[in-house]
Write a structure and sequence with these properties.
It is globular and about 65 Å long. It is built from 13 helices and 13 strands. The strands form three sheets. Strands 1-9-8-7-4-2-3 form a seven-stranded mixed β-sheet, sandwiched between helices. The protein has about 375 residues and is of the alpha/beta class. A hairpin with a 4-residue loop joins strand 5 and strand 6. It has two domains: about 230 residues, 3-Layer(aba) Sandwich (Aspartate Aminotransferase, domain 2); about 120 residues, Aspartate Aminotransferase, domain 1 (Alpha-Beta Complex). The termini are far apart. Helix 4 runs parallel beside helix 5, helix 10 runs antiparallel to helix 13 and helix 12 runs antiparallel to helix 13. Helices cover about 45% and strands about 15% of the residues. The longest helix is centred in the C-terminal third of the chain and has 22 residues.
């Protein structure tokens, strides 16, 4: 018997190219778009290995765990790495980037995470991009968590390599991702003897076998289901309007932050300043006497589908993360999450004010 998810016709080159064009419209970019057949770590690593090899001096900004990963890849490629680490409860500033260039004028590559869903912060890429352009460095941006939740504009910001994934604010699949590539990034890659070739990590393979050939013949069979799902989530964003989708995420972030503060019991935003808080996810610090992982487990015991998680690694004892992205960027999801946290806190003997939290969340959303 036939099955709608199994017995699919091959995905044509024209259909594949049309999805790339939709990604380009989402990012408002004229740069080349490469859709890669894997989770976003594939183009994130591939772009670094192609553009930042031996001889590169890289400024690697660390505002969360992904920045740490990029530094490891850069060192593995032979780059000289200057780490600029800021506390995870804040964001990096354009002034700090400018100071790093002044101290290390040889910097020719900058790696930055736009929004760190793991820590709940977001970085001011507009201002940072101006500084990077002034110094002529290649600008690499991880926009996996931010795309769909806040503006992502590679051309306007001077981003040379901008990686996105569909699994968060875009509300799509985790198994496919994309990167926009500037002309000067292609030039840097082509000049590097260490850039991956004949490899699943290779961006240059896609350029030579797909883009330079006019996007007429796919280099290999694409991941059909993931490509169709990516196409569907792009269609949904287009139908709703990107501004409306971003406003929904911003509303969820503001409502979660306000509701958590009004709930009481010592729960407070992990990211101190609202301007530094990412629209894609809100992180909360639990009272010192509690264990965040245990609190989350209690909250999820009644409804495992709630978008709640404890912080990763050493943050697991102190941080709760509310992942209000995609289908969970709704008032209902925010209210259900706050209620579950209130129940878990009250079970620990803490006093909570659920009506006040509900009112605060409703007011903040509006």
């Amino acid at each position: 018997m036939t099955h709608p998810l199994l017995d699919l016709p091959p995905l044509s080159a024209d259909r594949f190219a049309s999805v790339e064009d939709r990604v380009a419209r989402l990012l408002d970019t004229r740069q080349d778009i490469v859709i890669m057949q894997g989770e976003a770590l594939l183009p994130l690593e591939g772009a670094i290995r192609a553009a930042a090899g031996s001889g590169t001096t890289a400024l690697n900004v660390i505002t969360g765990p992904y920045g740490q990963t990029f530094g490891n890849w850069l060192r593995d490629c032979g780059a000289t790495v200057i780490d600029l680490a800021v506390p995870f409860h804040t964001a990096v500033t354009a002034g700090q980037i400018r100071e790093a260039f002044a101290e290390h004028p040889g910097i020719d590559f900058v790696s930055l995470v736009h929004a760190e869903a793991a820590t709940g912060n977001t970085n001011p890429v507009t201002e940072i991009g101006e500084v990077v352009r002034e110094h002529g460095a290649l600008f690499y941006l991880d926009a996996v968590a931010s795309v769909g939740a806040e503006p992502v504009l590679p051309d306007a910001w001077g981003v040379d390599l901008c990686v996105i994934g569909a699994q968060k604010a875009m509300g799509g699949p985790a198994g496919v991702s994309a990167v926009s590539v500037s002309e000067r990034a292609w030039t840097r890659m082509a000049a590097s003897p260490h850039a991956p070739r004949r490899s699943y990590l290779s961006l240059l393979d896609w350029k030579e076998r797909w883009i330079d050939g006019g996007r007429k013949a796919l280099p290999h069979a694409p991941a059909q289901l993931e490509m169709l799902a990516l196409e569907a989530c792009l269609e949904r964003i287009e139908a709703d309007g990107l501004d409306a989708v971003m406003a929904r995420h911003r509303g969820a972030a503001l409502a979660t932050r306000a509701g958590a503060v009004a709930l009481g019991a010592g729960l407070e935003p992990y990211v101190y300043e609202e301007r530094d808080a990412a629209p894609v996810a809100t992180t909360l610090r639990v009272p010192a006497a509690l264990n965040a992982a245990e609190l989350v487990a209690r909250a999820l015991s009644a409804d495992p589908a709630l978008p709640l998680a404890a912080g990763g690694g050493p943050l697991s004892k102190e941080m709760v993360r509310v992942n209000h992205y995609g289908k969970d960027a709704t008032p209902q999801a925010v209210q259900a999450t706050l209620t579950a946290l209130a129940t878990a806190l009250s079970e620990q003997g803490l006093t909570v004010d659920v009506p006040a939290a509900r009112r605060a969340a409703e007011s903040a959303w509006q």
